[in-house]
UniProtKB/TrEMBL annotation, chain A:
Membrane topology qualifier: Multi-pass membrane protein
Organism: Azospirillum oleiclasticum
InterPro entries found in the cross-reference section: MetI-like, MetI-like_sf, Sugar_ABC_transporter
Keyword line: Membrane, Transmembrane, Transmembrane helix, Transport
Transmembrane portions of the chain: 12-36, 75-96, 103-128, 156-180, 213-230, 264-285
One matching Pfam family: BPD_transp_1
Cellular compartments annotated: Cell membrane
Primary localization: membrane
Domain spans labelled ABC transmembrane type-1: 71-282
Family as reported in the entry's similarity comment: Belongs to the binding-protein-dependent transport system permease family.
Protein name: Sugar ABC transporter permease
From TrEMBL, chain B:
Domain ABC transporter intervals: 4-241
Sorted UniProt keywords: ATP-binding, Cell membrane, Membrane, Nucleotide-binding, Transport
PANTHER family linked: ABC TRANSPORTER ATP-BINDING PROTEIN, MALTODEXTRIN IMPORT ATP-BINDING PROTEIN MSMX
GO molecular function: ATP binding
Listed InterPro entries: AAA+_ATPase, ABC_transporter-like_ATP-bd, ABC_transpr_FbpC, ABC_transpr_MalK/UgpC-like, Mo/tungstate-bd_C_term_dom, NA-bd_OB-fold, P-loop_NTPase
SMART domains, A to Z: AAA
Family statement: Belongs to the ABC transporter superfamily.
Name of this chain's protein: ABC transporter ATP-binding protein
Lineage: Bacteria, Pseudomonadati, Pseudomonadota, Alphaproteobacteria, Rhodospirillales
């Protein structure tokens, strides 16, 4: 195969390469650079090799311990919100109207939480859930249930989980609704003639048709919740204690609070790799499922 | 089994219909016999799918009753009627195997074990689906999927009628013929009433013993294919069936002669003069009007000759009105010519409806 060599093509790629270099590669390399050094301020850096990485992956060290703790908290949080938002989103999508003006009204109402900036969502819930002046916190306490997210771990967790469910269930619902809308009426009519129960219709018609959007929804919600920062930071600031300190919050504490640039850089690289790995697993599962169906 | 009776049936989608035009289905009364093969034929929007959905119970009519063997089923849910329906787009449960698809209606009705197995295998054999039984429904071709939809209807032992809603729309042309033959064979083998909705006259005429032509929410004619062809009850039927359709010419009726723009055309019998204000027309199919040399019949002017392969059709003008007529083999004329019509096949229509012999 003789292909004519045309070096001019590089000229067309060059702008993209430059943009990618400045937006991604160079910042990333800076982080890599920090992660192998230590600093005591004064802009003096010392070579540390893979020392931070060894610490980070060893749970017996101070750094490794707090990283693992934050990671577990993060995974637990993602698992809880997926377990709530996915079934709830499906249920909402199933009960949404199929036609008429109600469709538009429902869509607007559902989209509202997603349109609010994240730190505003945090602020809303921070105030809403306060036990002294917040409507929710005050009412719950008056009902005799002790609830204080600044002092009690369980309260703090419930607050951020409910907040995330409030903020993001709509996304799952809207994606599922799109999947449901693609089912022709004939399927429902045929199912009625076949005598299928409501459950059989769900299992054999609706769920298979929602499968793909559901995988996308799970992927999006997992990634988002795994990288969550703003809302819990605004509400609890990672507390009480470290009980709601997720990896990203810990990262900021490390980098900007303690100014441990080396440790923070190593942590962000590992954090990033974990996210990439999970993405890869999701992607593989999705494409496998697709191929099996084709 | 099932003799289907539509008693004084009508349907409208809008509330409080004021005029006839508000009805999707105008009041009708029909009886369809057990074991018949019926085709509902008509253009899009004529109400044929509405009628089908009323029979299957997906829709409850706003007026009148549906009776199966004299039993009122108007308000009976569709799953409790012994009917099956095959839709335009094949409905297959993608994630199930072909076997499970066929077993689905039986299992939903609480049947289990060998009874299900025997029935599924019997129907699969009937539809040539046996080799595909273990495959998943999602990956099959459109015609195989449509056979599965049909199979899910046939598998129920209690089914007395199968309704088809334009079932061959998404099937490849060369498979359409095959599938239609299969349907005919099934109809002969099983004692089932079949109702087949289509807008394709070839499909209707080859499938059905009785063709029900619908137009604008009304059944305009119900009859054997040859009746529709030879004696259309409405000018619409004349237009819609046949290619090219029936020639309809405005005419004045004078005893046993029709006058089209002053030109006399002999009729088979005498007609009483219609009341004033009624539009009278004559209709004659191109097959019963032959072109002939000038001076031998009704004078016409030839516009052009179309060669349809098997036959030739002349587009002519009779006193300014366009008409299609058959050109006999070997005849070549142009310009002035004549048309010979079989008087028995020249029908008289008053306001679109056939005027029957008294």
């Amino acid at each position: 195969m003789d292909k004519p060599l045309n070096q001019k093509a590089w000229l067309f790629v060059l702008p993209v390469l430059l943009i990618v270099a400045f937006s991604a590669l160079i910042p990333l390399m800076t982080v890599v650079n920090y992660s192998v050094q230590d600093t005591f301020g004064n802009n003096q850096f010392f070579w540390n090799g893979i020392g931070w990485y060894i610490d980070l992956l060893d749970p017996t060290t101070d750094l490794g311990g707090r990283f693992l703790d934050a990671l577990w908290r993060n995974l637990l949080f993602s698992a809880i919100i997926l377990a709530i938002e996915v079934p709830l989103g499906i249920a909402v999508a199933l009960s949404m109207p199929r036609d008429g003006w109600r469709v538009a009204a429902t869509l607007v109402v559902l989209a509202l939480p997603m349109l609010i900036p994240w730190n505003v969502v945090g602020t809303i819930w921070q105030i809403f859930a306060r036990e002294d002046i917040g409507l929710l916190g005050y009412v719950v306490n008056r009902l005799g249930i002790p609830y204080n997210y600044t002092a009690d771990t369980l309260s703090a967790w419930i607050t951020i989980v409910v907040m995330d469910v409030w903020h993001w269930t709509s996304l799952v619902a809207l994606l599922c609704y799109a999947g449901l809308r693609s089912i022709p009426d004939a399927f429902y009519q045929a199912a009625r003639i076949d005598g299928a129960s409501r459950w059989a219709v769900f299992m054999n018609i609706q769920l298979p048709k929602m499968n793909r959007v559901l995988l996308i929804a799970v992927l999006l919600r997992f990634m988002d919740s795994f990288m969550i920062y703003t809302e819990p930071f605004v509400v609890t600031g990672g507390g009480p204690g470290n009980s709601t300190t997720f990896v990203s919050i810990d990262l900021v504490k490390l980098a900007l609070g303690q100014f441990d640039l080396g440790k923070a850089a190593a942590m962000s690289i590992v954090y990033n790799l974990i996210i990439l790995a999970i993405c890869w697993v999701f992607y593989t599962v999705m494409t496998r499922l697709d191929a099996r169906r084709g | 089994m099932a003799r289907i009776e539509l008693a004084d049936l009508a349907h409208h989608y809008r509330p409080n219909p004021a005029t006839d035009a508000d009805y999707a289905l105008k009041p009708m009364h029909h009886v369809w016999d057990q074991g018949g093969a019926y085709a509902l034929l008509g253009p899009s929007g004529c109400g044929k799918t509405t009628l089908l959905n009323i029979i299957s119970g997906l829709l409850i009519p706003s007026r009148g009753r549906v009776l199966f063997d004299g039993k009122d089923v108007t308000h009976l849910p569709t799953e409790s009627r012994n009917i099956a329906q095959v839709f335009q787009f094949p409905v297959v449960y993608d994630t199930m195997t072909v076997y499970d698809n066929l077993a689905f209606p039986l299992r939903n009705r609480g049947l289990r074990g060998p009874a299900v197995d025997a029935r599924v295998r019997e129907i699969a054999a009937l539809l040539d689906l046996t080799p595909d039984l273990t495959r998943r429904g999602g990956g099959l071709t459109a015609d195989a999927k449509q056979k599965i939809s049909l199979g899910r209807g046939l598998v129920r032992p209690d089914v007395a009628a199968i309704l088809f809603d334009e079932p061959l729309t998404v099937i490849d042309p060369h498979l359409k013929w095959e599938l239609r033959s299969k349907l005919k064979a099934l109809h002969r083998a099983l004692d089932l009433t079949m109702i087949y909705v289509t807008h394709d006259q070839t499909e209707a005429l080859t499938f059905a013993d009785t063709v029900v032509v619908m137009h604008d929410g009304r059944v305009v004619q119900m009859g054997r294919p040859d009746e529709l062809f030879e004696k259309p009850a409405h000018t619409f039927v004349g237009h819609f069936i046949g290619s090219p359709g029936m020639n309809v010419l405005p005419a004045e009726i004078d005893g046993a002669t029709a006058r089209v723009g002053g030109v006399g055309i002999p009729l088979a019998r005498g007609y009483t003069a219609p009341a004033a204000g009624i539009r009278t027309e004559i209709g004659v199919r191109p097959e019963f009007a032959r072109l002939a040399p000038a001076g031998t019949g009704v004078p016409v002017r030839v516009r052009r000759i179309e060669d349809l392969g098997r036959r030739r059709i002349a587009r002519v003008e009779l006193a300014g009105h366009p008409m299609a007529v058959t050109v006999p083999d070997g005849l070549s004329v142009s310009g002035e010519a004549s048309v010979l019509m079989e008087p028995a096949m020249v029908h008289v229509y008053a306001d679109g409806r056939l005027v029957e012999a008294a």
